[in-house]
Amino acid sequence: MSIVVTGATGHLGRLVVEGLLAAGVPAGQVAAVVRNKEKAADLADRGVELRVADYNAPETLTGVFAAGDKVLLVSGSEVGRRVPQHRAVIDAARAAGVAHLVYTGVLGGPDADFDLAAEHKVTEQAVLDSGLPYTFLRNGWYHENYTEHLAPVLTHGAVVGSAGAAGRVGSAARADYAAAAVAVLTGEGHEGVAYELSGDVAWSFPEYAAEVAAQSGKPVTYRQVSPAEHLAVLTGAGIPEPVAAILVDVDAAIDRGLLAGGSGDLSRLIGRPTTPLADAVAAALKG
Ligand SMILES: NC(=O)c1ccc[n+]([C@@H]2O[C@H](COP(=O)([O-])OP(=O)(O)OC[C@H]3O[C@@H](n4cnc5c(N)ncnc54)[C@H](OP(=O)(O)O)[C@@H]3O)[C@@H](O)[C@H]2O)c1
């Protein structure tokens, strides 16, 4: 029996693999599913088994899982292609007879009515249809979605968005979500459960701008623009139009309260408070 992590060379998957090792799971019982072995050479050096597969090529998933494995399916990053990708992983997991399939979905699950959630909803249903023992980790937003993009904020003195000033984001650090995955993969009693994961404290964009200003010592405010202006700003910054449209739609979802979270599931699962946004801002400013 192994604990198998897909997307293991991505930000979240790598944190999960490292978290499993730090939690004392023997490296020989941890397998990393990767597209590129070289990107995971350090994990192999530590004794983690590398299994090569591509979600886009179902034949590469044959034999990647074994009966009794616990599998974390980290959702893919190619928006629009993820339903067949995830189905291929689920089919391979079912064919192998894995003991537990854990999936990183999105906050709200079936009730999340924004564009980015659509593929997660279909995937969750496919997991349910597979009949496999499952856990859904419905992840809220990462702090890093914002703090990894501080350079233009500091240059222009503005956080630009189309969410209203009252819209709140219950984000947490990627490391918090990774710790939740480790808790589920190493713990008991999580089968058949959907966790709504979010940070303990939900913040508004004016509060975020004030935090960046306070820590950087530079004037930064929130500039709320219309959805059309927001789209123009994002595409003007070189973001492809379909991706920009998804980001504008996310801000509308924030206005509707869909990313505020508040269940407390994340801090309960990890046994500690979630990482404050201020810590992520500080880390990003340190560079
Ligand atoms: N909650 C949030 O705020 C938030 C934000 C962004 C994304 N997400 C979702 O959460 C996932 C994990 O986040 P992250 O920060 O770790 O993203 P990430 O760093 O982009 O990692 C994505 C991982 O998926 C792998 N992958 C992508 N396409 C694949 C394919 N066709 N076959 C096999 N593996 C494939 C990537 O492999 P390579 O290393 O080979 O590229 C990478 O390991 C994302 O993929 C996305 O679905 C959530």
How would you describe the shape?
A: globular
Count the beta strands.
11
Structural class: alpha/beta
Name the average pLDDT. Answer: 98
Mind telling me the CATH superfamily name of the largest domain?
NAD(P)-binding Rossmann-like Domain
The biggest sheet amounts to: 7 strands, parallel
Q: What is the name of the CATH topology of the largest domain?
A: Rossmann fold
**CATH level-two architecture of the largest domain:** 3-Layer(aba) Sandwich
Written account of the structure:
The protein is globular. It has helices spanning 11-22, 41-45, 82-96, 118-130, 144-147, 150-156, 174-186, 205-216, 227-236, 241-255, 265-270, 277-286, and strands spanning 3-5, 30-34, 49-52, 70-73, 100-106, 134-139, 158-161, 168-169, 193-197, 203-204, 221-224. 43% of the residues lie in helices and 16% in strands. The protein contains twelve helices and eleven strands. By secondary structure, the chain is of the alpha/beta class. It has two domains: 3-139, Rossmann fold (3-Layer(aba) Sandwich); 140-173 and 198-261 and 275-287, Alpha-Beta Complex (UDP-galactose 4-epimerase, domain 1), CATH 3.90.25.10. Helix 1 crosses helix 7 (174-186) and helix 9 packs antiparallel against helix 10. The model has no long low-confidence stretch (mean pLDDT 98). The termini are far apart. Bound molecules: NADP nicotinamide-adenine-dinucleotide phosphate (NAP). The site of NADP nicotinamide-adenine-dinucleotide phosphate has 24 residues, from helix 1.
